[in-house]
Design brief:
The protein is an alpha/beta fold. The protein has one domain: Fe-S hydro-lyase, tartrate dehydratase beta-type, catalytic domain (fumarase, Alpha-Beta Barrel). The chain has six helices and seven strands; from the N terminus they run βαβαβαβαβαββα. It has a five-stranded mixed β-barrel. The model has no long low-confidence stretch (mean pLDDT about 90).
Length: about 180
Amino acid sequence: MDKKITTPLTEEKIKDLKVGDSVLISGTIYTARDAAHARLVELLDRGEPLPIDIKNAIIYYAGPTPAKPGDIIGSAGPTSSYRMDPFAPRLLDRGLKGMIGKGLRSSEVVESIKKNKAVYFGAIGGAAALIKKSIKKARVVAYGDLDSEAIRELEVEDLPVIVVIDSKGNDLYKLGQKNYLNSIT
């Protein structure tokens, strides 16, 4: 059974999410990849304000392709999350509560997720057409010069994700591997 959540993503909403849960997200989320993350952290280093409010926000690690005529957005599948690992703890410390991507996260990111009571969701790579159906509005809000890697504000409805790392640090990749190994011995 899918759990439904609406942004903003508060600690109250996160506390009941468990590793492996299927979740449908509705509301406002942002896209940002490594180039945009580097710029955000540079602003933090200089003590300057960020171009988006990340408190209780979700960042989707995606660089959508240009929209075809009549479409809201192009292909919007997830990118590999490890590329954001050098930047994620700084943003989590500033109030970011959710990240959506694909793949493993570093131990530093897992510890920061636990410390900040946040969550890491997985989106299915190769399912960009399905994900695109959940996006109702999209607009560039920062770093337009980065083209597909610009920060976009998306309005989503029932965006399908899975809890990969919950706020307690439970990791679906590790648990899945352990369960599999136990099942074959």
